[in-house]
Design a protein that fits this description.
binds magnesium ion; Rossmann fold; alpha/beta; single chain; 8 helices; 210 residues; binds adenosine-5'-diphosphate
Length: 210
């Protein structure tokens, strides 16, 4: 069982959206036997509200009650944790094996990014020894925006400065379909495919034994 937390010190960057799509597409990709648990660790309960709004979550995805990671007893192949912004952001990453960081490519979006990544490193060294950064994910990107292009460049530079280098996943565009949580969004399909390749071996993916 792999625990993936979606974290950022900033609100509105697509953490909850990313947690939802990662869980949905991972469940689809991993097949029926492997279920994916979603955990809502944000007091504002956006993910829980979303689950209520959708009435039923995509097949294979389950919103687990409470904020605890379920026991690793074979019930779930993956756990995706949605976390709050702000001062409790780092603490909410506890128990994660991997942390995925959505980044909006705007000045405020990357202002504290390097600090946030350092705080994750510290958390990994002290409280959560098994934790590592999975990747940065540019979100809500407008292809026509020069500001976005410039800041995606900066995101890549921040990622390249780290040792080992940090992956920057293909960007997710600002899309109406995502606002409506429609499942057919190719941007997140690509992202999840890359994440799964990072997280599981080819053999595990072929057999969906995770
Ligand atoms: N790629 C996207 N395209 C369009 N709207 C998006 C996208 N990502 C997020 N949103 C919208 O932006 C708002 C904030 O996203 P959310 O995932 O709740 O951010 P966070 O959890 O980081 O606060 C939501 O209304 C969501 O529907
Ligand atoms: Mg949220």
């Amino acid at each position: 069982m792999k625990v993936i937390a979606v974290g950022s010190q900033k609100g509105g960057v697509g953490k909850t959206t990313t947690a939802f799509y990662v869980a949905a597409h991972a469940a689809r990709r991993l097949g029926g036997q492997t279920r994916v648990a979603l955990i809502d660790r944000d007091e504002s309960r956006n993910l829980t509200q979303l689950a209520r709004l959708l009435k039923s979550l995509p097949s294979g995805v389950e919103l687990v009650e409470g904020t605890e990671v379920p026991p690793d007893d074979g019930q779930y192949g993956m756990v995706v944790v949605d976390t709050p912004p702000g001062v409790t952001a780092i603490r909410s990453l506890a128990e994660a094996d991997l942390v995925l960081v959505p980044v909006q490519p705007e000045p405020q979006g990357i202002a504290n990014l390097a600090d946030f990544l350092r705080n994750i490193d510290n958390q990994g060294r002290t409280v959560s020894p098994g934790m590592r950064l999975l990747a940065l994910l540019p979100t809500r990107v407008s292809r026509k925006s020069n500001v976005h292009r410039h800041h995606i460049g900066l995101v890549h530079r921040i990622a390249e400065m780290r040792r080992p280098q940090l992956t920057v996943l293909p960007p997710v565009r600002e899309l109406e379909a995502i606002k409506r949580y429609e499942l057919d969004v190719p941007d997140y399909l690509t992202v999840v495919e890359e994440i799964l390749n990072h997280v599981y071996s080819q053999q595990e993916l072929l057999g969906a034994v995770v």
